[in-house]
Predict the structure of L-gulonolactone oxidase.
Amino acid sequence: MDQNMPMLFSTRSLLRQILQSNILFLFFLAVCCTPPEDPVKCSSPNNTNCTITNSYGAFPDRSICRAGSAAYPATEEELIAVIANATRNGLKMKAATRFSHSIPKLACPGGKEGLLISTKLLNRVLNIDVKAMTMTVESGVTLRELISEAATAGLALSYAPYWWGLTVGGLLGTGAHGSTLWDKGSSVHDYVVGLTIVSPGGAEDGFVKVRRLNDGDQELNAAKVSLGVLGVISQVWIN
Ligand SMILES: Cc1cc2nc3c(=O)[nH]c(=O)nc-3n(C[C@H](O)[C@H](O)[C@H](O)COP(=O)(O)OP(=O)(O)OC[C@H]3O[C@@H](n4cnc5c(N)ncnc54)[C@H](O)[C@@H]3O)c2cc1C
């Protein structure tokens, strides 16, 4: 009996080791993260017959938001052309982002014919002025990219919501904030010193209006926290 004990112990410890390594393996599998799916999905070619959801995959009223089509402008010029064309055709439109973290149905254009204008490809950092401590970015840049690009240039943000898979346009649209008392406080829009917003226009404007608003412009505050109802912000100048 005694002779069998070491064998019993070694079998047990072997089993324990196998169990532990499996649990460790499962743990690493469980924490391995991937970005959420694109919230905009189109079932027909040319990005038509689309739906949009939020990052949870369901809006609070459980309804599905349908849109006639989706556009993915990659430059400000393309965005201007998309909005002019949609306005000429009388389409409802709404800005949508790569992540759609807002829980309510903010990004739904309403009506099956509506147009989703995604900022997924409008995602470049355009300029970093280290001396002035400012950055100019396109509105689809994520908070993660903003922090990372700032850090590469030796800068840091003194404000941020804790969740970094958000876009600059979405952060502004919802007035997102963190919790610091440092500097001007924790709302991201309080650090925006200029932006460009593209809105529908009349026939005399070619069906599109481009407003470049700077600090001191009365319209800047309204354009910053607008829930996407005043147009699509293309570029943001942030301090
Ligand atoms: C897990 C989690 C944690 C969160 N934590 C915080 C937090 O700590 N602090 C906080 O304040 N909030 C928090 N939120 C809310 C979150 O900040 C907002 O939902 C977020 O700002 C949305 O960003 P988004 O890029 O996903 O935009 P979306 O949800 O896609 O869009 C938000 C609104 O902005 C509009 N919009 C987007 N881009 C543009 C553009 N380029 N031009 C004009 N309008 C545009 C859209 O039309 C829509 O109306 C959290 C949300 C989640 C899911």
